[in-house]
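Tutorial handout. Part one gives the primary structure; part two gives the three-dimensional structure as tokens.
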Amino acid sequence: MARQSKLTTIPPDIYHQLLSIFPNFRELKIVILTYRCFHDAFKARRKILLRDVAQNLLGHSFDEAMLLAREQEAAYGRGAPPTEDFSTKIVSLIVTNHYVLRSLERVVVRLLKRDKDIDIYEAGMWVRLPSGDTSPAESSRYMTAGYRFWRFSLQRQKEHAVFLKNLTRSQLLELNHFVTGLRDLVDAMGGHPPESDHDKDFISGVLSSGPQSILNIWEAFVSGDEYFDEAFGIAGDCDGEGFFSYAYMDAIDRKGLHRICALDALEPIFDGDNEKMHKLLKKAAKERKKAAAKKKEHSVHS
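Part two.
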């Protein structure tokens, strides 16, 4: 009781400042349910405080995370996007989506950072993978690309090309790198490389089921759950022909990136401060200008 009475002497603005620095919603909830004074302060500035804590949790991926949550609420509710940014449903989606992508990060990063001599189809491959540690900047790019891919998976097929068209060149390459990691994970769970168009379509089908589904399948896989085969088969049976790859190849061609997209050296998410990717993008821009100049010169002479 003494602690509670001392807290009541704190000015209201200090309550707000203290609540605004909580790193996640779980800790915020514990405090406002424990102390009446903090509960009252939260009620007075609920929307502002929820936004502050969401930004603390999500960092630079905040905008993409919010776009995804709004689209999910609209899709699941079969209505227009919500007008309130931080409804109870929106907060729940933010927390769940963050958990899903963070959980996948632990394995996807390990696959993306592996040595090229590691065969992902070998039974003992998992113990040979690197730890998967990332810098804050790398992790932020991974999460942002993950939210974009999740939004992409919610779009109808005819909307995929427009979705990718609206991304910058660096965003597009980061997105592709994220999808490469997810595809490696799905391939590894399948146990063998795709040998036919049907196998490739199956992998695309699993990818099209989205991050939440892929995490559920992965957790069943590592636990040896009998649910794994059924879940894997259901996800793969989705109509996934060319999912992501068709729209992506069209997008990189439109953006003049076909010269660098296949380079093994390109690692746009896990490349320190992205120096390697920016150098390659500058090189691609110079090549585009050079090609355009040649084309103009040729048309003049002809």
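Part three, for discussion. The two ends are 90 Å apart (CA to CA). The chain has a mean pLDDT of 86.
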